[in-house]
Amino acid sequence: MNDPIKFVPKRDIRVDWQLIADMIEPGSRVLDVGCDDGQLLAHLAETKNVEGRGLELSQHGVNICVANGLSVVQGNADTDLVYYPDDSFDYAILSKTLQTTHQPHVVLEQLLRIGRRAIVSFPNFAYWRCRTYLAFQGRMPMTNSLDIPWYETPNIHFCTLTDFTALCEEMDVKIEQSVIVKASGKVMTRSTYGAFANFFGSDCIFMLSKKD
Amino acid sequence: MSISPPHSDNQTVILGRETPLKLDCGVTLDAISMAYCTYGTLNADKSNAILICHALTGDQFAASRQPVTGKNGWWEMMIGPGKVLDTDRYFIVCSNVLGGCMGTTGPGDIDPKTSKPYGLNFPIITIGDMVRAQAMLQDHLGIKSWFSVIGGSMGGMQTLQWASAYPERVFSAIPIACAARHSAQNIAFHEVGRQAVMADPNWQGGDYYASDKRPTAGLAVARMAAHVTYLSEAALHRKFGRNLQDRDNLTYGFDADFQVESYLRYQGINFVDRFDANSYLYITRAMDYFDLVEDHGGSLASAFEGTKTRFCIVSFTSDWLFPTSENKEIVHALIAAAANVSFVEVETDKGHDAFLLDTPEMFKTIDGFLQSSAKSRGLIA
Prior knowledge:
heterodimer; B: 33% helix
């Protein structure tokens, strides 16, 4: 064990991770809910000097994180966020995990309680490829980013961009920033593209805060 | 492998001559002996010291030959040059607990008031007392704060107690397979063990030291019962199944027909050679009394309020003595206290004993945690 376990980042950082990193102030306190094997946390620690913590459901992911020196605990976004104190983080991140939770709206509430800001990314189910897949093949959509068949996918609560903004309105949550990503990785803004964003965007990233 | 760094075989120091040890039960011990072993070299600013807390029947010989049994240290897999507890980098200290029987003051030692062994006149001790005594050793060694305190089972309890009672003296803490309070089931098992000892006529009310008899039969039964709780159903099945011991047929008697019986008898018989029955009573009692929740007004989080210590909790899937759920209670409390905490549940069928065995996932976890802690302590670049 003389050689420290080397962290090998994937060659290209996931597009949504880069966009999330762009939203984060250097040196802040970050909780990554559903942090997987810790790539985003490691990226944020390296590029933004954040004090990072993680919560991850899969034992495999947690073990990789801790072996790499990240502060991560095994736990469930649906049940374990209640243990975190109010406003204990600058950002609570939920990247591509919202759609896997049992009660997405409760998880959102918890994120906004724990973090001064919440950053949430999710796949847009109204993306045109999903729409045409369902319309013409009559089967549950599978795309490049949604590549697991319906019977195996952990995604149980899909939503669309419009669904999500409606939920934010219903929950009286302030949308501080939103970034819509096309499958090509190109970024659109909701203000310029309006309803088109819900058609052409494959992935969405929101930064949210509580309204005063 | 490099050449072994300095390691000191058993040393004993007298502690508390000036400031006696006040026990939770109200009694004061004027001076205590503390036996310990060290491995590796203490650096100039004394920032690389790791305290290992041993479990119920462990001792200070974590990585050296046990003088009674002649066997290797109980955690040699973890300690040594290039190992997880790297003696090229860290100064490792392991002391025998208060109440023990390998050199630290315990019920088998001479009571200065009577000039006879304490026996049951030894005061009841707690995990808090054990840690207070270890803190005296820390002072004696001139170490302001441990780089890490680590231990499994009762060692994990001591680790939690350390982090709670002396947060400024503990930079990082690794409680393994433990709980913040001893469960009813665990108290029950301990009571079975104690009753087995006390039912042995050779126990003589605990005053057996002057006689040539020892309550070995009772202590062996206590050990056998306890040993089952350290394993798992799956591990017992994998190791022994219903295999017969050196025979082809059942004997229709009460010999150890089955391998599992023979194994347990062996565990029991070997144990009594190296362990004092009264120590077993006192130390199991200390574990039973451990309740960090009650000590903090019913809120475990307040035991760790404002802590700067970094924590790494490890549990094992097949451990039914200190199951993951109890380890998670600690994790949740630490999260509520906004502490820096990592938690890994290791998949294994080896039961509670997994922390003493070759468990690579545990090694990797602790190694990663220690390396990142060492970076933040400035021990490695």
